[in-house]
Amino acid sequence: MTLEELRSLAARGEDSARQFKADVTNAESLAAEMAAFANSDGGTILIGVADDGSMPGLSLKDVARINQLIGNAAGQLVRSPLTVRTDNVALEDGRLVVALTVPKGIDKPYFDKNGVIWLKAGADKRRVNSKEELRRLFQITDQFHADELPTKAGIEKLDRLRFRDFLRDVYKQEYPDDPAELTRLLQNMNLATENGRLNLAGVLLFAEQPEWIVPQFVVKAIRYPGNE
């Protein structure tokens, strides 16, 4: 990005594709912003640019710190990890602006470390709360359901003993020995995707150690003594 391109972006103000930050110090907050862009149409965060479009810039030491923070946020605090681009643009006074470009995500939805899905809402962001909204926003087919979201888990992650017992108890059917037949069965039961990977329902119901595959899905309960 050139200085002229930077000035042009700053002059247009913030919108759903651009966000200005005079500085960033919180990796978790930045990760949420990046997830919101990835879940939408992508965008650019200009670090060293104030909300009013002025450019106080950053020192070289600040740039080094911020680039390390960006790498941590993109790789460790967003699920799935994001590949982002940074450009250090020099201002006339020698200070710098970091242009952080977040591409439109290809593995939506993206979650922050707390399992929250964020979307851009104008120049700001908002969290996705309802299952119905999740279906609308990340629709894959006309009959899409959230539990059919694809995962990266292959069929080898299946808990074979649990699935075998389920087939016997519910369908009076034996576990298929042929891997291709097993894959077709899982697909017919809406537990696997067309490319042979477990979907979200398949992972939550029948995967070994699903907490390692989709750690953002948790159940919390509190038990109290008595009935009052």
Structure description:
The protein is of the alpha+beta class and 228 residues long. It folds into 2 domains: 3-127, 2-Layer Sandwich (Methyltransferase, Cobalt-precorrin-4 Transmethylase, Domain 2); 139-213, no CATH class. It is 35% helix and 18% strand. The protein has 8 helices and 10 strands. The strands form 4 sheets. It has a 4-stranded mixed sheet, sandwiched between helices. A hairpin with a 2-residue loop joins strand 7 (118-121) and strand 8 (124-127). The chain is elongated.
List keywords for this structure.
228 residues; alpha+beta; Methyltransferase, Cobalt-precorrin-4 Transmethylase, Domain 2; 2 domains; four-stranded mixed beta sheet; 35% helix
Topology overview:
Elements: H1 3-11, E1 18-21, H2 27-39, E2 43-47, H3 60-76, E3 78-79, E4 85-90, E5 96-102, E6 111-112, E7 118-121, E8 124-127, H4 131-137, E9 150-154, H5 160-171, H6 179-188, E10 197-199, H7 200-206, H8 210-213
Parallel strand pairs: 1-2
Antiparallel strand pairs: 2-5, 3-6, 4-5, 7-8, 9-10
